[in-house]
Amino acid sequence: MLNGSKIGALVEPVMRGQSGGMSRNIYDNQEFFDGYSQLPRSQGGLAEAPEWPAVRALLPDLRGARILDLGCGFGAFDRWAIEQGATSVVAIDLSQRMLARARDLTASDKIRYLHGDLADLAAFPGEFDLIYSALAFHYIADFAALCRNMRQRLQDSGCLVATLEHPIYTAPVDPQWLELEDGRTVWPLDGYLQEGLRVTNWIAPGVEKYHRTMGSYFQTLQENGFVVRSLVEWAPDAQQRADHPEWAREVHRPMFLLLRADAV
Questions:
Q1: CATH number at residue 167
Q2: How many structural domains are present in the chain?
Q3: Average pLDDT in the 216-220 region?
Q4: What is the pLDDT of residues 36-70, one digit of tens each?
Q5: What is the SS3 string spanning 204-263?
Q6: By residue range, what is the domain housing residue 137?
């Protein structure tokens, strides 16, 4: 299921791989953007993100919250957060096309959509109660620097809630299911302890992401002013598998890692 174009059924890749400290931006390529826009979650928002119920369970009470959204995409979370009572949202994305779509879909003046690179988060000052990020961190070359910058923007009682591709998913050199002669389907796992750049294909060839181990994510957050409160290795539940039989093999390896980390 999860190779080639079919990966879009579950994943909204942000694809902000970095080279020399500056992020690459494929989303402003018209052909790629058009393909991305056809994904179920691009069209249906949070309701079409299968991991959303688990993510929502990690979020604090948003009433009165000031939120920073890193890699906001079409802004679905930002609009939902205002509906939940958030006071304001600053939403950052590298793609001008993504931001233009987000602005077209948004009526609230409580949301500010800003063009920017997560590699240069220091350019966006402010203090927030919550930092939210969906499927962006695995495209960041210097995760430690990002963690430092995020902590500087959180008040002491604030928290980070983020989703990212699970390290078991990012590790393989060729991340595709293997069909064995005995009928079993398995996920390849190689190079898990070799952190660093991975180049894969999704809609277009040459998608850059950065693999890190679970321990590395945990340790980097802890070393930069966060206490990790929750780690969820997401898999579709029984009802989701019944509604989407093509997701059945997802029980063999976690695709998403969801986390909550509190500022200390």
A1: 3.40.50.150
A2: 1
A3: 97
A4: 666 667 667 798 889 999 999 999 999 999 999 99
A5: EEEEEEEECCHHHHHHHHHHCCEEEEEEEEECCCHHHHHHCHHHHHHHHCCCEEEEEEEE
A6: 4-263
